[in-house]
Amino acid sequence: MSAIIVYFSTTGNTETVATRLAATTNFPIKRLLPAEPYPTAFDEKMKRWHQERDHDLRPAITTTVDLSAYDTIYLGYPIWSNNLPAIPRTFLEAHDWTGKNIIPFCTNGGSGFGQSLDRIRQLAAAATILPGFEIYNTQIDHSASLETWLESQKQSS
Ligand SMILES: Cc1cc2nc3c(=O)[nH]c(=O)nc-3n(C[C@H](O)[C@H](O)[C@H](O)COP(=O)(O)O)c2cc1C
Questions:
Q1: CB 82 less than 6 A from any atom of ligand 1
Q2: Which residue, 54, 66, 76, 116, shows the most beta carbons closer than 10 Å to its own?
Q3: Ligand 1 centre and the CA of 24: distance in Å?
Q4: 73 vs 97: CA distance, rounded Å
C-alpha cells in the first residue's frame, strides 16, 4: 500500500494525531492550509465557518498535493458543527478519486464522526471509504485506542 496523510487542523488536535500517525507509519504528511487563515478566536472562527457552511463555499487552499503516487489517503480533520469543515471539502472536490481509498480520521468534542463520513462519500463518490478513527480531543494524550489504531496502521503498511 502506498499512502499519504493529508490533514486540516486549526488548534493542533488533529495535527497531533496526524503527526503521530506519520511517525508510526513513516507515510508522508501534508497539512491543508487555507489561503485565508481562520481567525484564532472561537466565535470569529465559528462565524466564518457558518458562512462557508450555509453558502456551501470552497475556500482556497495553498497546499498542493499530488495524489498520483498513492492509492490510500488518510484524511484528518476536526468535526465542525457535526460535519466536515470546508477546507477538506475543497480538497476532496479538487481530486479524482477513481481507484483511491480514503481512511478518515477526526478529532472532536464529543460528536464522533457526526455527518462527516456521509459528506466524504458524497464529495469523493469514486473513492472507497475504509474504516477510520475518531477521538474526543481530551483523550488524545492518553488513549489506548489511539495507540492501538496507530499500531494497526503500521502493520497494514
Ligand atoms: C467552528 C467549530 C465547530 C465545532 N463543532 C463541533 C461539533 O459540532 N462537535 C464536536 O464534537 N466538536 C466540535 N468542535 C470542536 C472540534 O472538533 C475539536 O476541538 C477538534 O479537536 C479541533 O481540532 P483541531 O485542533 O485539529 O482544529 C468545533 C470546533 C470549532 C472551531
A1: yes
A2: 76
A3: 25
A4: 10
